[in-house]
Specification:
Layout lengths: L3 H4 L4 H10 L15 H9 L2 E5 L2 H8 L6 H5 L3 E5 L9 H28 L9 H23 L6 H22 L2 H12 L5 E5 L8 H9 L11 H16 L6 E5 L3 H4 L10 H9 L2 E5 L13 H14 L4 H8 L5 E5 L12 E2 H5 L9 E10 H10 L6 E11 L2 H8 L8 E10 L4 E4 L5 H9 L27 H7 L3
Parallel strand pairs: 1-2, 2-3, 3-4, 4-5, 5-6, 6-8, 7-8, 8-9, 9-10
Antiparallel strand pairs: 10-11
Helix pairs in contact: 4-9, 6-7, 6-10, 9-11, 11-13, 13-15, 17-18
Length: 491
């Protein structure tokens, strides 16, 4: 609960601003260790800003520039949701998609309820999480029933206004890019926030936003995402990085989720990446790039066939070499994560090739690497790690396929050869063309981890590691970005 006596010691302006961000009824805790405005701003209030690729979202973002110097100094990270907005030809199509959003939301809540119930070993009464999911599900059902009664003739006045808002944003989104509105606005934000050095670009229908909140944006006409990256989405990334260049801002950390490099590098138009883009990558120290997301049935506009073809195109286009142009520019990387999230039945021979993602690059400062869902050869895989043996401290690998050579030979070649290595995280299936494989769960493989760090004798039959021909997949929990967190401490 809020400590009102502590709050009353803060400036009135700050109190109003806190309540404009989060309604008082929704604030469950606000821990204040110091009443000085500077300390509150830097440590508690605004470490992260979030906006969407439409004009009202960016305008709200720019209001930060009018706040006090202490508050602006506290801003360190920008989360930028860059999905293309959904264009609808008429009211009927918009209303149809709005109803689909409700149905997807209901399916999502049903899945939450099922999982929560399965986790309740004692049976009834349900866990607190299951009870919350059930209450939410019942509320959404009532809303859905209510709207279904009202909407055949479109006679609920607020919806007409929401539809108009949605259409206006769709028409306006292209202008944000074509008129360099994003570049100009982000430059103003960088000038206002001297400590803003981390950028997170998100797509896939609001990745990182709770599903119910995402659905609420859709209902209001404020955020109706396509869920796939397109040229305008990537242009928003490029213009933001150009704005950093315009203001001589060094971006040290960047996270890209579902951002297709093919648009980002201008390869789709047969052009070279802009100099500003390459310079921005050159200054990066931490790069996390989720190259795709596994299709989810509750995502708006979900189409399994289309999703599969899009993922295949992304993997195959890596071989054209444009992705390596960006990787070669990022010479100062200390942390790198290149990951894919693919269905369990994805064919091994259709995985992305490690060489297409990292080439023969040697990052002289690289401390932490995270890789997932890739194929490689013995020579290519071992050469990559040995190139970085003098700097690597943390390695996280999930789901790898060896087209040539044996896995045991890979482990024996690397074991004890990386003198600075302190952490190893292996997860998923490690398979070879010969049929031999290792399958790791998140709490298995400790013996092999220790062997890779210290060397010695390869464990012949490590406990809890499976051997065989066809892998028996263990779901596991992907220890994503643990390496990133450990490697960046104290940087």
């Amino acid at each position: 609960m809020l400590e009102m006596t502590a709050l009353l010691q803060l400036p009135t302006e700050l109190l109003h601003y806190i309540f404009s961000l989060v309604p008082p009824a929704d604030i469950q805790a606000l821990r204040l260790t110091c009443c000085l405005l500077k300390d509150v701003a830097q440590d508690l209030l605004l470490p992260t800003l979030t906006t969407f690729l439409h004009r009202p979202g960016i305008e709200r973002l720019l209001r930060v520039a009018s706040l006090s110097k202490e508050i602006r100094a506290g801003v360190k990270t920008l989360n930028f949701h860059i999905d293309a907005l959904q264009e609808c030809d008429d009211w009927d199509e918009w209303n149809y998609r709005r109803r689909i959003a409700f149905n997807h939301s209901r399916l999502h809540i049903e899945s939450r309820l099922k999982l929560a119930a399965e986790d309740s070993w004692a049976g009834p009464p349900l866990t607190e999480e299951a009870q919350q999911a059930l209450a939410e599900y019942q509320t959404r059902n009532l809303e859905l029933d209510h709207y279904e009664r009202l909407l055949p003739n479109g006679d609920w006045p607020p919806l007409a206004g929401h539809y108009a808002i949605s259409q206006r944003h769709c028409e306006d989104q292209k202008l944000l890019i074509e008129e360099s509105y994003v570049r100009t606005s982000m430059a103003a934000l960088f000038r206002a926030c001297p400590n803003l050095t981390a950028l997170h670009f998100l797509t896939r229908a609001g990745s990182g936003v709770k599903h119910t909140a995402r659905d609420a944006y859709f209902q209001q006409g404020l955020y109706a995402p396509v869920g796939l990256d397109d040229n305008y989405s990537s242009a928003a990334v490029e213009q933001t990085l150009m704005a950093a260049h315009d203001t001589t801002r060094t971006i040290r950390e960047m996270r890209l989720e579902e951002v297709f490099y093919y648009y980002l590098t201008d390869a789709v138009d047969g052009l070279e990446p802009s100099e500003e883009l390459l310079q921005a990558f050159n200054k990066l120290e931490n790069l996390v790039w989720k190259l795709n997301d596994e299709p989810a049935s509750h995502t708006l506009n979900f189409c399994p066939e289309t999703e599969i073809y899009v993922t295949r195109d992304r993997i195959q286009s890596l071989a054209e070499g444009d992705f390596l142009v960006l990787m070669k520019a990022a010479t100062n990387l200390k942390t790198l994560a290149l990951t894919w999230d693919l269905p369990e039945d994805w064919p091994c021979h259709e995985l992305a090739r490690l060489g297409d993602m990292v080439g023969d690059i040697r990052w002289s400062k690289l401390r932490s690497i995270e890789l997932s869902h890739f194929k490689s050869t013995f020579e290519e895989l071992t050469a990559f790690f040995l190139r970085h043996k003098d700097t690597l401290e943390s390695v996280a690998v999930r789901d790898a396929y060896l087209e040539e050579g044996e896995l045991d030979h890979v482990f024996e070649t690397l074991a004890g050869k990386l003198p600075r290595l302190k952490e190893v995280y292996l997860d998923g299936d490690f398979m070879a063309l010969s049929g031999r494989y290792y399958t790791f769960d998140y709490d298995t493989g400790d013996e092999l981890d220790k062997y890779l760090i210290e060397g010695g004798v390869l464990p012949q039959k490590p406990k809890s590691i499976l051997f065989g021909g066809e892998p028996d997949r263990l779901s596991g929990q992907y220890l994503s970005n643990i390496a990133l967190l450990s490697a960046t401490q104290g940087v």
